[in-house]
Amino acid sequence: MYPYDLLLGLDLYDIMLSLALIASLLLVRILGDRMEVKTKTLNLWLISAFVAMLGGLLSSVLFQAFYDYLETGVFEVSSGTGMTFYGGLIGGVVTFLIVNYGVGFFIDREHDNVKMTRCSFDIAACCITLSHAIGRIGCAFAGCCYGRQTDAWYGIYNVSLGYKTVPVQLMESAFIFLLFGVFLWRTLHGKTYNLALYLIFYGVWRFFIEYLRDDDRGASPVSFLSPSQLTALVLVFAGIILFAVLYITGKKKAGGDAAVSDE
């Protein structure tokens, strides 16, 4: 790990986070063009994605402050408050939906049809996994989200703790890069359900990888689960619901198209 300032007060965590956000915006543009999304809709997605990033950053800090409250009993937001991925994901998704389907309704009423909705979800899965994988490398540099203490050869020395830990950040980054590759291939080949699959696969992964992590985030309402494990189960449940909704709406659309064709 290397939690030291490099340039203008920025450390490698800040640099990797910035790279993750920029890469996501570029990917939206590239995939949108590749899938022939009309310019008005694509610009709306870019604006929504940018605002969602800001909302996600704010939410990630608030979630971390809440985790700190569970551990210490003090809720405080300051320059020393960290960020948590779950907070960023939830806040970012909610912000994107509000902007894209709220404000966007008055700009382009055609953008929210079934085909474009599924397309935006599939592209979102690619962007989230790419930025998440890059961001986790930043976590490894910063020494946050660390694993259990270990003396094994694969351990990473944590400057703040003074001992080696299991590199769960890099393990998670590798797993998510794999998901990114799968979702990118699926998107380019017209396959859907990617966002639902992301929620399910990542939720399952996060639930079990938590057993190797050692950064205490306090207690959860379920005594034998950590807050992150409980949230992981919620993600899996949400992914299953989203998959079912997309499947049902897809079937209805296919049936409606067939009826129009018969007429």
Describe this protein's structure.
By secondary structure, the chain is mainly α. Helices cover 69% and strands 4% of the residues. It is built from seven helices and four strands; from the N terminus they run ββααααββααα. The strands form two sheets. A two-stranded antiparallel sheet has the order 1-2. α5 (168-188) packs antiparallel against α6. The chain starts with a strand and ends with a helix. The relative contact order is 0.11.
Helix share bin: 55-70%
> What structural class do you assign from the helix and strand content?
mainly alpha
Number of strands: 4
The description of the largest β-sheet is: 2 strands, antiparallel
Spatial extent as radius of gyration: 20 Å
If helices are DSSP runs of H or I spanning 4 or more residues, what is the number of helices? 7
Query: What general form does the structure show?
Result: globular
Strand order of the biggest β-sheet: 1-2
Report, as a whole number of angstroms, the end-to-end distance: 65 Å
Strand/helix succession: EEHHHHEEHHH
> Low-confidence parts, pLDDT < 50 over ≥5 residues?
258-263
Strand content: under 5%
Q: How would you state the average pLDDT, rounded?
A: 82
Give a short summary of the structure.
This protein is mainly alpha-helical. It contains 7 helices and 4 strands, in the order E-E-H-H-H-H-E-E-H-H-H. The strands form 2 sheets. A two-stranded antiparallel ribbon has the order 1-2. It has a two-stranded antiparallel ribbon with strand order 3-4.
